[in-house]
Amino acid sequence: MTEAARVLALLAERGQTLAVAESLTGGLVAAELTGVPGASAAFRGSVTAYATALKHELLGVDGKLLAERGAVDPEVASQMAAGVRARLGADWGIATTGVAGPDPQDGQPVGTVYVAVAGPDGTGGETARTGVPTGAVAGARLGKVVPLRLNGDRGEIRRESVRIVLALLREELSGNVRAQDTEQNGGN
User: Fold this and answer.
1) Which residues contact 50 (CB under 8 A, 6 or more apart)?
2) How far apart are CA 54 and CA 73, in angstroms?
3) What separation in angstroms does the CA of 24 have from each of 67, 124, 154, 159, 175?
4) Bridge-partner residues for 146, per DSSP?
5) Rg of the chain over CA atoms, in angstroms?
6) Of 68, 45, 44, 39, residue with least CA distance to 56
């Protein structure tokens, strides 16, 4: 079973939905998900906001943040995930932003990637690297951001980003399932 199939099965079990915001992956996450038969039961859709301005216009990423730090930033990834979740009416949002190469971008070297997940219960709530609370668009929940330094050519960086963001979501869904089971069973 592929990572995409595992994620979609977990979402279907819970009766929840997913939306995807992509930059450097350019639609590869959505393609991976829609390659799974029955994906429409949980997958709402995606926004490929490749241009920096679209991250603000379509996903609600703070324009000042984009102007000050550029598109390759953990807070941008967090706001993308929260924004796509809110805009597409999904329970979960995931996002990818980074530099696939061949040239650096926004002062960031090739292979710098941030993947993020935003869930219905404030999943995560801090960046994995710093422990600092992540922001989100107005009314959206906090999420989890993972910084990556990937090696390889453009295609390899993009494919690994897809794999990792889906694995991150699976981990969050699996963790939430365990927490719900414990709560429903009186903490045992």
Assistant:
1) 22, 23, 26
2) 15
3) 18, 23, 9, 10, 27
4) 115
5) 16
6) 68
The answer to whether 84 touches 95, Cβ cutoff 8 Å, is yes
Nearest to 29 by CA among 105, 108, 117: 117
List C-alpha distances in Å: 187 to 58, 107, 124, 128, 180: 41, 47, 21, 26, 9
Query: What HEC string does the chain produce?
Result: CCHHHHHHHHHHHHCCCEEEEECCCCCHHHHHHHCCCCHHHCEEEEEECCCHHHHHHHHCCCHHHHHHHCCCCHHHHHHHHHHHHHHCCCCEEEEEEECCCCCCECCECCCEEEEEEECCCCCCCCECCCCCCCCCCCCCCCEEEEEEECCCCHHHHHHHHHHHHHHHHHHHHHHHHHHHHHHHCCCC
pTM for this predicted structure: 0.85
52-101: per-residue pLDDT in tens? 999 999 999 999 999 999 999 999 999 999 999 999 999 999 999 999 99
| Distance (Å, whole) CA 129 – CA 54 | 27
